[in-house]
Structure formats: structure tokens, C-alpha cells
UniProtKB/TrEMBL annotation:
Described purpose of this protein according to its UniProt entry: Odorant receptor.
Protein localization: Cell membrane
Entry GO CC: plasma membrane
Keyword match Transcription regulation: no
Source lineage: Eukaryota, Metazoa, Chordata, Craniata, Vertebrata
Name under which the protein is recorded: Olfactory receptor
InterPro entries: GPCR_Rhodpsn, GPCR_Rhodpsn_7TM, Olfact_rcpt, Olfactory_GPCR
Sequence similarity: Belongs to the G-protein coupled receptor 1 family.
Transmembrane portions of the chain: 26-49, 56-77, 89-118, 195-223, 235-258, 270-291
Entry keyword annotation includes Kinase: no
Amino acid sequence: ISNSSFLNKILLGAFADTRKLQLLHFSLFLAIYLAALLTNSLIITAIVCDHRLHSPMYFFLLNLSLLDLGSITVTVPKSMTNSLSNARAISYLGCVAQVFFLVFLLSAEYFLLTVMAYDRFVAICRPLHYETLMNTRACAKMAAAAWVSGFLYAALHTSNTFSLPLCQGNAVNQFFCEIAEIFQLSCSESYLREVGVTCVSLCFFFGCFVFIVVSYVQIFSAVLRIPSEQGRHKAFSICLPHLTAVSLSVSTLTFAYLKPPSISSPHLDLVVAVLYAVVPPTLKPLIYSLWNKALKDAL
């Protein structure tokens, strides 16, 4: 409450100052946003309407598309609106909501990708037990666990971030409210909090990453033992879209938050934020639809 009384609004970073470049930014973000809406909506519709896709793998893919739609909607429309109206402001409560929902959706997505790695592991390495281990109830529980974990993780970080008194101005060097940028506005020593946030995040995400890597080591070991080339090709085609999606998410987030301070600059930070907040939700549907024959046929 004290923060909101001091900061009625927060100024977001702008991609451009001239009107022509602002309109160009609006047009590019509009095209990207519409592409993400179209591709993710098509995947959701195909999975819901085609009974052939009513399986655990596509159930998790449906959840992934919902999370992608949510994450890109949290940041892009507000940035487009600001460019079109030549403004930079977002309300304090709007900033809180943006931080919460972005962390919630991105972390839930990462937890869901971990669950999808387990699904691929069971399908390749434990095929005889697949229907038992990945029954409808188990899949619903695992998907719910990913969503709830993301919610709790976001609540922790949002409350930790906005409990700090903010008095170092009201401008952030990012096109959306980002935790690292909010820390810069704090008038108290936030170093220990930043370290704490980083440690908690690394524990969660490194644990999931290790689980995914171990799962795929066993998956590839099992695939290489398949005698027929056609069988190996089918197994790889099932796993490669998921592995590519994981690589895209991990690489962009890792570079965004662990890049050396020596190469950091406001313009580079804006571009990097686009890479992890805007690009993956647009590319993931294409990755899955291009490499999945059943999904292409349904579409």
C-alpha cells in the first residue's frame, strides 16, 4: 500500500522514441501476437475436437498452448497499446499483476515441460506400463501440480519483490514489469533478496533440468537399442519437438538472467526480453505442428 501511494504508475521502457519506429514496433508486435494467438488456438481446437488426439501427450500439449497464450498476452498487448498511444505508463497494480502472471505462466510452463519429459520417458522406456502410469487421473494430477507449483512460485516472488519500499524513481528499462528491474527501484538494500530469489529459482529450475536430462539420457539409450530404423525414427520424431521446446525455453531464460554484466545494456536487455517472453510462445506451436504428423493431419 505504501508503494502504491508513492508510485501511482510505473514507466515502462520504450523500443523507440520517433513516431514511425513506434508504429513499426506496434505492427511487428501485432503480427507476432496474432501469429501466437492463431497457432496456439488451432492446436487447442484440434486437440479438443479430434478424438485421435485424446492422449496424455496431446493433453499436456493443450496445457502448454494455454500457458503460451497467457504468457504472451501478459506483456505484448500493453506494450502495443503504449506504442500506439505514445505512452509508457502502467499502473502500480497493473505492474504487480504483470509480474505475478508472467512468473506464474512461465514457471508453470517449465514445470509442465518437465512432466512432458516424464511422459516421453514412460512412452519409450516403459511402454507396457504406459496406460497404467499415464492414466487420465495421473495426467490430470501432474498437470494440476504444474499449474499450482507455478502459482505458488509466482506468489512467493511477487510478494517478496513488492514488499520492498520503492523510491528510486518510477522508470524501468524493460517493456514490461520485470522482477530485476523492480529491484532497481528499491531504496533499501535488495542485494540479499536478489541472491535469495536467484538461489530459490536455481534450485527449482536446476532440479527440473536435471530430471529432463536424466530422462532423455535413458530415452536415447532405449531408442538406440530399437532394431528397426523406422522404429528409431518414430521414437525420435516423438521426442524431438519436446526437446526443442525445452532447449528454446532454457537457452533464452538462461541468457536473459545469467548473461555477464559486462555485455548488458538497455537495448540488449530489451531484445533479450523479447527472446524469452515473446518468441517461444510463437515458435512452440510451429515446432510441434511441423514435426507431428497426427497433429498436422488434425489441423
